[in-house]
Amino acid sequence: MKTENSVKLATDATLKDAHFLRKHGSWYHDTEETVLVVDVQRSNFGQQHYINLGIFVKACSQTLARFPPKESECHIRLRLESLMPEADEESVRTLLDLDNQSIGSAERQKRIRGLVSGIAIPFLLQCSTRTGLRDAKRNGRLDAAVIDKRVREAIF
Q: What's the total number of domains in the chain?
């Protein structure tokens, strides 16, 4: 299905370039220790979008009911803007709000591609191992994340 949604277009193109695979509307990257998941969510109340990031830790789950897991099934979950300095969070929300016409489509896509390639993908790749997860936790990069109890007990 062809979309003209500049948030999805930019995110899709960037993740495809980074060798993530698409299935059921989400993007994933399977590693030895984790499955990294990216999902673009649209608000039910307007054209606001969210780029959700998920990390499924294989060692913390006996079985995987479906592959890849949905972002909501991941052990660690957060939104892209939570990785930004607090002062930049609102500008990211504005960028992902298609109701806000102050940013043209081409500029919006360029900036979203920069955020996904420069922030989201490096963060997810860092978190693809236990060591990387511990480092991210120690450096405060997971402060805004929802972290499953099994991961807190097994890794942190």
A: 1
* Residue 96 in domain: yes
Cα→Cα distances 50→24, 92, 155, Å: 17, 9, 27
* 71 φ/ψ sector (left φ>0, alpha ψ -120 to 50, else beta): alpha
> What is the pTM assigned to this prediction?
0.93
- Which residues on adjacent β-strands are paired with residue 57? 34
Between CA 86 and CA 146 the distance in angstroms is 18
Q: Residue 140, CB half-sphere, CA atoms under 13 Å: how many?
A: 4
* Domain of residue 36, residue span: 6-148
In a domain, 120, yes or no: yes
Q: pLDDT digits over 42-77, tens only?
A: 999 999 999 999 999 999 987 766 789 999 999 999
Which region holds residue 46: left if phi is over 0, alpha if psi is between -120 and 50, else beta? left
In a domain, 1, yes or no: no
Tell me, yes or no, whether 61 lies in a domain. yes
